[in-house]
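Please fill in the sequence for the structure shown.

STRUCTURE ENCODING:
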């Protein structure tokens, strides 16, 4: 199991990162909350990781905090929630807000996340009740990064599509929140916040 990576951040294109660790490039998928904490490409980065092994791929997921990784690991234990959906959940709602939704049995709030229907939201609320012991105290990570992309709005749309939103919905979400000079990370964060409200 690969539990942690420390190396040079080469590329950040939500939801994918490329990290060079002593000449070996690791592709890592990360939730948007982790993206908000990342340094600029070319700088050193350390991420906690979770390795998922399937018949057709080995996928590495990266997290800025132990709380995030713990919540991710608990989410993928829920019947019908795989790593991609868990990543989408962590990208669409802050970990403490998710914990509150579960504690308050607020399945309706979870249905606003992409790919989460009523039955899945209800299952999340029920099955996560017993697992919150490992995720309580999770701290929402939020950073303010400067943009390095040539087209922040386009990159934000691509990231939202990668997180499970339809292209038309991603276009609409970005148009509502994007303003000149906003970095792609901020556009994505605002679009996701607006969607959950």
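FILLED IN BY: designer on duty
SEQUENCE:
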């Amino acid at each position: 199991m690969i539990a942690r990576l420390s190396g040079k951040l080469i590329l950040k294109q939500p939801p994918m990162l490329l990290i060079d660790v002593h000449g070996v490039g690791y592709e890592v998928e990360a939730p948007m909350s982790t993206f908000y904490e990342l340094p600029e490409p070319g700088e050193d980065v350390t991420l906690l990781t979770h390795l998922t092994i399937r018949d057709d791929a080995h996928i590495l997921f990266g997290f800025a905090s132990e709380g995030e990784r713990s919540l991710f690991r608990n989410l993928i234990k829920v019947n019908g929630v795989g790593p991609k959906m868990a990543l989408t959940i962590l990208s669409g709602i802050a970990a403490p807000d998710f914990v509150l939704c579960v504690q308050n049995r607020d399945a309706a709030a979870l249905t606003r996340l992409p790919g989460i229907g009523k039955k899945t939201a209800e299952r999340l609320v029920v099955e996560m009740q017993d697992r919150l012991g490992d995720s309580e105290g999770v701290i929402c990570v939020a950073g303010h990064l400067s943009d390095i992309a040539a087209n922040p709005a386009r990159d934000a749309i691509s990231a939202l599509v990668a997180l499970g939103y339809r292209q038309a919905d991603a276009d609409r979400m970005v148009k509502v929140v994007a303003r000149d000079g906003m970095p792609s990370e901020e556009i994505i964060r605002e679009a996701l916040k607006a969607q959950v409200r």
